[in-house]
Design brief:
The structure is a homodimer. Chain A is an alpha+beta fold. Chain A contains 12 helices and 14 strands. In chain A, the strands form 2 sheets. In chain A, strands 1, 2, 3, 4, 5, 6, 7 and 8 form an 8-stranded mixed sheet that branches. Chain A has a 6-stranded mixed sheet with strand order 12-11-10-13-9-14. Chain A is globular, with a radius of gyration of 22 Å. The first copy, chain A, starts with about 25 loop residues before the first strand and ends in a 5-residue tail after the last helix.
Chain lengths: ~425, ~425
């Protein structure tokens, strides 16, 4: 491992307090999966069966734990979540599948649950066999050590090249009863859309049936985790799991069985905000990131076209290096619009950096002041706006700049 | 402009002599389009009407000269080619179209041809109006100065961030008559497939009718210029034009009117090799490149799938930074195979670095020696092989590594 990268300059100035969530406890351990001198396994243990929903990588070569979670998600019941860092258990074939089954069995036995009620995720190096025994050995310590306020420690245990733990929390009412949503995430490289992002785990004490939870999660992810990109590289392991303990039902919260239930409207908005917050934190910890970039595309022929153009801009190495160099190089934005393969009419295209219109209807804006634009590019958050002038569809995506530090981090990861 | 980058370590050790091609002469001038103290315009002047074929960027925001060439290509007749560096005349709207028409008219007048017989290309900064008058002013000097052996100088005049001129030559028989093919190219960044690569101009004295020339060129480009990528960014301006003067007919060469004519078989093979040579030179001059990378995908379900997977590997920032770091990180190759969206079965996948099989049937190869693989990664040419084990289709693409120098070059281009 290379020396840990210094804290991202885009890291949050402070972390929120994470209130305890009735119905779930957390523990971490230093199991020595790969790293030494740090925690690398987290356990979330539910007091009773929790409803579970998940969204996974679209990689055609998914990791063994992704296969496992997909297989067991249909039952919709979780008793525990085990996550390790250091080894992704990906491209490990039958050995990897065996390791996952072994962990499921060991955890199930330790907590008195069926193996399929144990959800799992792994992050780290690809292609190395995961030694399930190391995790199994840490189980006693984990099961004994669970506590209500252990989520921040869990967020730290799942970090790899992350420079800060990613946490978010929200309180929201369902009916007259306040419920809590807490979320954690990890991920800094190999971040690209199509739920191909990182690991994230969200917990709530709301009472929500698994199918409704799945519908909410799948919808919310489109404009959050599926709208960010660090390097266009889609991981084999990306996993977002959400658990609803239902403990709030004991305090009078109505059970949500249909995602369209108007009682859940505030909850869904809070979930949208929380996932977007976590997704932005992943971008802010993008490997080598010095700038947080928002790309807004408006006036597209369709939502799909808008998002494709936005991602073409956000994934362009030339746009990203221009941002790193604080260069208001809008010609590269034109290039990225052009290469997206979606309808665009050069002579209708407007381009903005922040509020500064640099190009108007196919020409450099006559009023455009390069000094003003250059000064804008020095900010740590840059908004690139594109108005296509063709239709009414829009999309927003987020990324970071591409710096020499990205190369340094990734040219030296395994050595 | 940043200071010019040092010569690529992957540059050819020597340049071939470019024999004169009967029927065409070349000149260059320092027109001051953007640069000072160097040539920035080239003229190719044909003795008589030459057959012309072309392939262009698929960008939805093409440059004004690309629009111009597309419009006039159907007539298939060229009398001159004018290329400038320093300004791409892209995203310049009606002003850009006017500039192209002005240059066409001025050149046509100077040489006694119709404006539509003057082909054009521009490369450089996007979004700045091109001052046609600067090129027009240099015309007298250009027209007077043309010479048979001016092609190497022309190759230098069209360079932008290139660190070396790219030239290639071949002699081949059509029937009993030897003909010459000479080609030049420029391009170092904003290089990606879909004929979205760079500028390249190929000249031959063979007698080939325009439709046959077009068919040959379109086919040959698939496995050469459309199989390379530096940074996945597709330019607005990319242009490959090929001209056949027909002068060899005077020496007895038969005229080729059908691309399928067996008399042209050797010529087509020579053209394939020449375009591949030029395309490889573009990759070898990829911005910041230290390593030349060949990606071979075999056993895919279709040719399209093979190429898409190969490009997914070749465009992956994580694969490219691993190569830069001389890290035999085959897990990132798995990731790139998985994200391509094409059929792949983890448990059938074999991965090679050179001849070293690092992964076999979904698992790290038990015989794989990391020290040997690490030593292989120190070479300046790296071959990444993927055997999917699904079908029989294959593809090869070429790219370079992603280094800190790429960031340095592109973070400081316009400033």
């Amino acid at each position: 491992m290379a020396a840990p990268a210094p804290l991202s300059p885009l890291a949050p100035k402070k972390y929120p307090e994470l209130p305890a969530i009735p119905g779930v406890k957390f523990a971490t351990a230093a199991a020595g999966v790969r790293y030494s001198g740090r925690t690398d396994v987290m356990l979330a243990l539910f007091d009773g069966p929790a409803a579970v929903a998940g969204v996974f990588t679209r990689s055609k070569c998914p990791s063994a734990p992704v296969d496992w979670c997909r297989e067991h998600l249909s039952a919709g019941v979780a008793r525990a979540l085990v996550v390790n860092s250091g080894n992704a258990n990906a491209f490990t074939g039958a050995v990897g599948a065996r390791a996952v089954a072994d962990v499921g069995e060991a955890v199930g036995k330790a907590i008195g649950a069926a193996p399929g009620e144990v959800f799992m995720a792994s992050t780290g190096v690809i292609g190395e066999p995961l030694e399930a025994a190391r995790i199994a050995k840490a189980l006693d310590e984990l099961v004994v050590g669970v506590k209500r306020d252990g989520l921040m420690e869990a967020a730290r245990a799942i970090m790899t090249t992350d420079t800060f733990p990613k946490v978010a929390t929200a309180r929201v009412k369902i009916g007259e009863t306040e419920v809590v949503i807490n979320g954690i995430a990890k991920g800094a490289g190999m971040i690209a859309p199509d739920m191909a992002t990182m690991l994230s785990f969200v917990f709530t004490d709301a009472a929500i049936a698994a199918p409704a939870l799945q519908a909410m999660l799948s919808k919310s992810v489109r404009r959050s985790f599926n709208a960010i990109t660090v390097d266009s590289d889609t991981s084999t392991s990306d996993t977002l799991l959400m658990f609803a303990t239902g403990a709030a039902a004991g305090r009078g919260a109505p059970e949500i069985v249909d995602a369209g239930d108007p009682t859940a409207a505030d909850f869904k908005r809070a979930l949208d905000r929380l996932l977007l917050d976590l997704a932005h934190q992943v971008v802010r910890d993008g490997e080598g990131a010095r700038k947080f970039i928002e790309v807004r595309v408006e006036g597209a022929a369709s939502r799909k076209a808008a998002k494709r153009i936005a991602l073409s801009i956000a994934n362009s190495p030339l746009v990203k290096t221009a941002c790193a160099g604080e260069d208001a190089n809008w010609g590269r934005v034109v290039m990225a619009v052009g290469k997206a393969g979606e309808k665009a009419e050069r002579d209708k295209l407007d381009i903005y950096f922040g509020d500064i219109r640099v190009a108007h209807q196919g020409l450099r804006d006559p009023a455009y002041d390069e000094a003003e634009a250059s000064s804008y590019m020095k900010k740590s958050k840059i908004v690139i706006g594109v108005k296509l002038g063709i239709g009414t569809a829009r999309a927003k995506v987020w990324t970071c700049d591409l710096t020499k530090e990205y190369i340094a981090i990734n040219g030296d990861y395994r050595s």
